[in-house]
Amino acid sequence: MATNVEKTQDRVNQNINDTTTTSVSAADRLRAISQACKEIFNDFQFDFSNRRYKLEYYDTINYYDITVNVPDFAEPVDLRRRVGEHVEQFTRKSPRELAIEIDEGDAEKAFAIDKRDRKNWLMINHTPEDNAVVFHDCDSTTATSEIYLDTTNSDAVNLTIDKWEYKEGEACINFDLDYDQSTNQRLSIFFNLVSSIDVREEDGIGAFLFDVYLPDVSADSSSVMVGYWGKDASNYWSGTVTTDIDGNVFVDGWNTVKIKWADATKTGSPDASSVGWGRIDINHNAVADNTDYRIDHIRIAKPENLYFHYQSWYVGVDSTSSAVYLTDFWATSNVPFYSGVYDYFDVYVAHKASATLFRQMGMLGEANDQEALAGRELLRLKRKFPSSRLTPLKSFKIFGLNMNK
Q1: Which structural domains are found in the chain, ordered by start?
Q2: CA-to-CA distance for 347 and 349, rounded, in angstroms?
Q3: Which residues pair with 279 in a beta bridge?
Q4: If both were cysteines, with which of 53, 88, 332, 366 could 358 make a disulfide (CB 3.0 to 4.6 Å apart)?
Q5: Angstrom distance (rounded) from CA 110 to CA 91
Q6: Radius of gyration of the chain, Cα coordinates, nearest whole angstrom
Q7: Mean pLDDT (10-residue bins), the chain, 405 residues
């Protein structure tokens, strides 16, 4: 049997002995009930508000911005592989500890939530069954391939190897922008591999990944990236993106770019078993020269679906016939998150909301009484329903000592 806010409000009216809007308004009651639902999240993290988000995990990508795709994220619960392959649990750790383990190459499966730049980042340390295939490590212009700039039909100049600022390995390629070198507003870099790579396993389902450093996005509006990979300049796949791997606009500094193979355009007759040619274009509209563009760690990877279980901070939905999720109740027809599962959470929520309303009316004694009743009810709920939330574990390994090497 489902409940709704109206039934909760009836309990509140009984607790404060007022069915009118004389003491507190209808809007005040809705706000108090919303607050009570939010406070039960803080007091105890019930599983009934848990939700799941499917993430495409790529080998070599350890940080995922979930701010937009998981807007209702409150607390992490678990990270799992698909059914049949979830044979080893992911340990939740602190962001600091996991960052060290990722850089040290630790093989333990773990995850963390890193909150920075007003965003939520899901950190993952995991070795999938299918490792990324390196197209070019960009450590040298001659070690595994010949890299050259298009200095005729693009504005790229001064190709060098940068051993000071790079993302992976020992270096990256560095080049500059001469904005009036050509009539085309782009920087084009070509790659001819000495030995082609076999990416048939990734064909159609993988992604072309690379890291690009933009010195000043505001100056040249580098908002479009184009990637090409294939047999040669006549037989290839190509794809265009306007955001980074997480769907965010490009920023000054390093950006990870993902071009999904499924979204790519096929030209000629490329062969996934023999990929030995590539090209990256950075489109711009600069009106002045600029320096120190960088590209590093070009690879092709196949995603693995991971399932992030988390506690939602949505208090409910707008009605029983709709699933518009709410952060605050706006009508008595709204439905709290626990409706139809454990409707008697109403008891706690009503006492908690009543305490808030009594404090608003200046009746502190009555507020304390209702707060005590809410606390008593919460203890009963905790005894009945243990939380599945994973707390960050602190390992006792010695940092700098990697037992997997």
Answers
A1: 5-48+324-384 (no CATH), 50-130+306-310 (no CATH), 133-301 (2.60.120.430)
A2: 6
A3: 190, 228
A4: 366
A5: 4
A6: 27
A7: 89 93 92 92 74 95 96 91 83 95 91 94 93 93 79 96 94 96 95 94 96 90 90 97 94 96 97 97 93 97 96 88 88 91 88 96 96 92 71 57 48
